[in-house]
Amino acid sequence: MTYEPQHSPNSDIDKTDAPAAGLGSDASHMHAHEAQARASLSLDQQIEDVIHDAVMSLKQRQQEDGHWVFDLEADATIPAEYIFLNHYLDEREPEVEAKLASYIRSIQEEHGGWALFYQGDMDLSASVKAYWALKIAGDDIDAPHMVKAREAILAAGGAEKTNVFTRYALALFGHVPWRAVPVMPVELMLMPKWFQTTLKQLTTTAKVCPFLEKSKTAEVKELLWVAW
Q1: Secondary structure of the chain: what % helix, strand, coil (to 5)?
Q2: Nearest residue to 78 via CA among 129, 40, 24, 32
Q3: What pLDDT does residue 34 have?
């Protein structure tokens, strides 16, 4: 499992995308001119221009036999959760973890946090997961990128404002109490279809077992597998 970032906002992490000497200012002027020209157009014309650019970009990337192929990328939550899993199971993979941490750093946005898509607004839950993953991977909390991330997270409300999945991850490591996450009675998995609320009525993500009351007994675990 490896990640090769296409975009590297942090120049201290990956300098491979830096412009050649003497070309950076010309490119900046060209982009500024294009942006200014586009701003003078009507909204409909701007939309048409963007669609045209997207179509041309796709045509340029089409392979000779007609297909397209792209890197499968994800937001910061997926590599962060992989780091969580390895640490929770005490099955660390140092080489993989280093690559994942590098990828997480490379997609940190200018606002200090992490978005769910390239150059998007900060997503608090994704940012908390990314920050915590980098921290347990060994990043110095006083490093500039960590300070910037922490300040952005705190300004947005902190870990207590994150979604339930992020709070579950934090609870697994003891950083928030279990009362900070919702639970449902495990017996809900056995309710018949005519019951007012059944597991089949919930969305896919809501069916995740951590939502159910924690139990370590073998009998309940066996019951869960049979019901599932």
Answers
A1: 55, 0, 45
A2: 129
A3: 67
Residue 39 has pLDDT above 80, yes or no: no
Q: Quick check: 42 and 32 in contact, CB under 8 A? A: no
Residue with tokens 């994942």: 100
What average pLDDT score do residues 140-167 get? Answer: 94
Contact 145, 155 (CB under 8 A): no
Residue among 179, 183, 76 nearest 130 (CA): 76
pTM of the predicted structure, to 2 decimals? 0.64
Rounded Cα gap, residues 127 and 86, in angstroms: 19
Give 223's DSSP letter: H
Q: What are phi and psi of 212, to 5 degrees?
A: -85, 155
- So what's the pLDDT on residue 1? 41
Distance from chain centroid for Cα 97? 16
Quote the tokens at residue 149.
């991330």
